[in-house]
## 1
Amino acid sequence: GPCGLCSEAMLLSYTVFIFVFSSNQSMVAGEWIYGDPDPKSFAYLCFFFGLNSYFDKKFMRSSFLLGVACSFHVLVGGYLSLLYFGMKLIQTKKLAFKETGVYLLGAALGVYAVVNELTIGSNHSLDLIYILMRVPHHVVPEWKLHGWIFEYIIYNLIFIFCYRTTKSQFVKSLILFPLLGNIFWIAGLVFHHSGHPEFLKYYLFRVTDTLFPFTAFLLISLSIDRYLNYSKKVAATLTSLFLVICCYQFTVRFSHFSISDKKYGDVYSWIRENTPKEANFLINPAFSNFYVDAERGVLATYKNFPQLKNYFLESIERLEFASQVKLDRGLALNRDLLKEGYENRDPVLNFSNYKKYDIGYVMSDKLISSEHFLLVYQGKNAYVYQVLP
């Protein structure tokens, strides 16, 4: 390509990147690009193709693909688009009108979603759902648990050094993506420490967090490309390896989705075959896929919440009943705390809530000795009890 990075080297970097970071390929935010048929996976895919088009100087196609990325996922595509046009403005000192129009054409669905949200609004309580409870690790940097600050500094020092020493304008363009993304990082840290966590619902860390290792892989591939002479056989081999890895990841993901926890597979099978379909279960709230594996309703889990504020607050109350742990509304939910609380809960405490929430069955790892609970199934690693009046 024009930047000195051939398509085989690009493919090598993509392959290694996906293989190494297929689940959590970032420093802090637990972001992933590939693994599930998720909208952001397609957004990143459009970004990858758009980046290749940019390197080949096909700017119209590149702009359109960035727009399509925004249609798939407003935040992921939107941040990548801001970085793309920021980089292009720095490199060329101008933005072509036609490219902007083509971008808006590709981003039509994303633009519609944003306008609809701003004009009509919604009942979603995103501040509560995404920041305090459901996936706090995606929006709040866990620097107390990870040495991310050292990785962050090293990445930036390497990128700055490469940017100042390289003569390739395309390599400079590539490096500008993570460097400009520092704006989002700094903004996220400021909001987090200034007492305004509600702004973190916009995922200020996740996209840039992913671009750091991704750009590093591309730079490594560029260095390799200078010393290796790629052939059609190498390209075919890399393509085959890429497809094998993709198929493997999908196979693993979908098998995981069908029975998420092999430990309780026999229990889930018994529940599906021997309990009423409308039955509601009290389970360990740390289990997130019971309703898929057992195909029955649950009182509450740590990850799945209704998207309305009133019902969301009730979900917190349900979690408190299930775990018998008082939850702080102002702190991120601790999954391990819920798990430990459930394992040590008193099953007869606040027994009236079983009727209140129409709980017909309880799944537990421990034996329950009470006249209110009838053991109906003993699995390899868990027991199922029917709740008696």
## 2
Amino acid sequence: MDITTAVKAMKSAADVYGKAKKIPEQKQILEGLAVIAVLQQEKFDLEEKIRNIAIKLRKAREQLDTRSRFELAYSVYWLKTDKDKDQPYCPSCYAVGLEMPLQADERHSKKSTWWRCPNKDCQGAFNPWDYHEPIHHSSGFEPWGG
């Protein structure tokens, strides 16, 4: 083996030895990158949870706002600003968070009008003016003649 070949072989061996010394450092870098990837995923998951909570909070605030704007009377809901009780809202839809104005079948007389819910899933019918408050009996009442 000539000197030039021997020097090249020694340089090659020195390079391999130098790189081998860096393997623990490279392993630490790879472990650090793996930790960063896990933390980024956790951050993404937490951001998603925050978005979902913000949506739920917005819906809850909207429901509170809706409840503060409506009142129940004569078996249907009315806007509190509707003092003349001209436009009832469906109580069934209101219970599931929808503001569904009822539509009058016939408008001959306010007192004889049946109001229908236009929601295809509900289709409730109400006559608020023919509504009678429930009768509350004393504790001794026996409806079946006991």
## 3
Amino acid sequence: MRWHRTSCRRKHSDSRPRCKASPWAQRATVWWKDDASTRARFSSGLARASAYRPPCRGGYAELTPWDRFTVGVGAGLAFWGPAGGGYIRVRPIVWGGEGRRLLNAFVLQAAYTVMRDGEFDLPCIDSCREVHYLDRTAQVGALSAGFEHQLASGWHIRYDFGFGRALFATAWRCARYVDRMPAPCEGSPPNDDLPVASFAIGHTL
């Protein structure tokens, strides 16, 4: 089975329409209809640079035991402190990769990250709060979808977008701005739901 757009036409000698798949659809394959022997394969990679979700920066290493499946780990530094975790990624749709052509894939990814979390303290001029939320440790789960591209030279680029949620986290605590002494919290705490956007550049081993 292929997911694609078709164009049909009816011949004079036959009342049944004959359908022809578009050139893109002839190259794109879903995982249960793929013959990887005719194209390049996605390989295990070691990153040069990556980003989990703004404003986290770091590096990652991943292993691809099967062309359609990858597992990886990563570590980096967020705005509030260190972050690290793991992820799994599947490629249900792959196209290209013949000869020295660009290899492409639509990807789905699930990630788990332990990180320092907090609120953004923006500079204020008037009506500044006297109390702010302190940073906490959170375990964040995220689901995202995007695209991955691999060059014949071994370099690959990946970008995906989705949503994450703090699955487990220490309780929020507050302190005064002036002397950092503990104080009752004011207002709503930072949201446990957050958008996820990642961009990674790496090279195969």
